[in-house]
């Protein structure tokens, strides 16, 4: 049972009620009283009462943790994860200036934040995209960085650990020096124009990112959208990963679409079992490790950070030959 899950809270309530009932029966139990029974009761009664109180306090703590999400997992509670990344909320404008003010923290660990540009209202996404910027972004202000976009359903399961806003930075570290954007979706088809044009153009205005050769990871129901972006984005996306959330490989129809992608595009299928002939796949039995595996692979198939050109190639140079 997960630390913030409802089953654990229900179990705590039930155990508390059972212990309380048992303690009450022990406390008011009647019958023949002997010196032996008096000694037993004198020892058991306070122990039962203390145990009931301890479980009740623990149940209250579980309920408070579920509401406040202080400890999101058992590993955080017992020290397996030493830090929990708390995502900030970025301003709607002047993002680069705001990031400059976060450099003290960012250059050591990177930074994750909720990205809410003014234009995002027209995107009709169920939640603001989460952006994870690597530490290298703050250390070298003269380069542009590759981009990995992770798309999936609003309520993603175990493969999309990055959907937990406090862990976007932790998940994104598998993407190396790339800027990783986590996007939640209700309708993948409606999101296609947003992710192929509107979002990349706005991200290019807000952050120092490379204009092309992006990568996309589709999680769960977002896998089909990832294939659409690879096929229809005019070279914006050049590498992709399909991250399956079931206990088998993705559906045959989806794999057939993947096999029909144009040549020159890199694609990885990450699932519980191999994807079959004609596709590069990585079998990861545990679902929580699949997004990490996809991001690590995509890191190898995106360009490294590069310095911005000294001259904007879109601006004509004045002068020319004279007759």
List the SSEs and their pairings.
Layout: H1 6-27, H2 35-68, H3 74-77, E1 88-89, H4 95-101, H5 103-109, E2 111-114, E3 130-133, H6 135-139, E4 143-144, E5 147-153, H7 168-172, E6 179-185, H8 188-206, E7 214-219, H9 223-232, E8 237-243, H10 252-259, E9 266-271, E10 280-283, H11 290-300, E11 306-307
Parallel strand pairs: 1-2, 5-6, 5-7, 7-8, 8-9, 9-10
Antiparallel strand pairs: 2-3, 3-6, 4-11
Helix pairs in contact: 1-2, 8-9
Task: Report on this structure.
- By secondary structure, this protein is α/β, with parallel strands linked by helices.
- It has eleven helices and eleven strands.
- The strands form two sheets. Strands 1-2-3-6-5-7-8-9-10 form a nine-stranded mixed β-sheet, with helices on both faces. The protein has a two-stranded antiparallel ribbon with strand order 4-11.
- Strand 8, helix 10 (252-259) and strand 9 form a beta-alpha-beta unit.
- The longest helix has 34 residues, at 35-68.
- The termini are far apart.
Give the number of helices.
11
User: What is the N-to-C succession of helices and strands?
Assistant: HHHEHHEEHEEHEHEHEHEEHE
Helix content: 40-55%
Looking across the biggest beta sheet, what order are the strands in? 1-2-3-6-5-7-8-9-10
Shape, per Cα inertia axes:
elongated
Beta-strand proportion: 15-25%
Main beta-sheet strand count, sense and barrel state? 9 strands, mixed
Arithmetic mean of pLDDT: 81
Low-confidence stretches: 79-85, 310-323
**In angstroms, what is the radius of gyration?**
27 Å
Distance between the termini: 81 Å
Secondary structure category: alpha/beta
The total strand number stands at 11
């Amino acid at each position: 049972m997960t630390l913030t899950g409802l089953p654990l809270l229900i179990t705590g309530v039930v155990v508390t009620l059972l212990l309380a009932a048992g303690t009450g029966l022990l406390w008011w139990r009647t019958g023949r009283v002997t010196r032996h029974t008096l000694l037993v009761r004198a020892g058991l009664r306070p122990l039962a009462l203390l145990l009931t109180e301890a479980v009740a306090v623990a149940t209250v703590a579980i309920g408070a943790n579920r509401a406040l999400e202080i400890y999101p997992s058992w590993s955080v509670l017992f020290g397996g994860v030493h830090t929990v990344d708390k995502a900030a909320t970025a301003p709607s404008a002047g993002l680069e200036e705001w990031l400059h003010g976060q450099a003290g923290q960012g250059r050591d660990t990177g930074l994750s934040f909720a990205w809410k540009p003014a234009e995002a209202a027209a995107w009709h996404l169920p939640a603001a995209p989460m952006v994870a910027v690597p530490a290298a972004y703050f250390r070298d202000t003269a380069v542009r960085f590759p981009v990995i976009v992770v798309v999936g359903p609003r309520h993603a399961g175990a493969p999309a650990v990055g959907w937990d806003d406090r862990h976007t930075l932790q998940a994104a570290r598998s993407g190396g020096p790339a800027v990783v954007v986590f996007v939640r979706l209700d309708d993948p088809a409606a999101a296609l124009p947003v992710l192929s044009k509107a979002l990349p153009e706005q991200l290019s205005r807000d952050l120092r990112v490379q204009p092309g050769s992006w990568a996309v990871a589709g999680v769960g129901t977002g896998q089909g959208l990832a294939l659409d972006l690879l096929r229809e984005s005019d070279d914006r996306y050049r590498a992709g990963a399909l991250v399956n959330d079931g206990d088998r490989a993705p559906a045959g129809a989806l794999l057939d679409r993947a096999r029909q992608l144009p040549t020159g595009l890199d694609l990885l299928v990450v699932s519980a079992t191999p994807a079959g002939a004609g596709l590069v796949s990585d079998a990861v039995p545990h679902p929580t490790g699949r997004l990490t595996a996809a991001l690590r692979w995509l890191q190898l198939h995106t360009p490294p950070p590069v310095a911005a050109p000294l001259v904007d190639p879109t601006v004509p140079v004045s002068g020319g030959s004279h007759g």
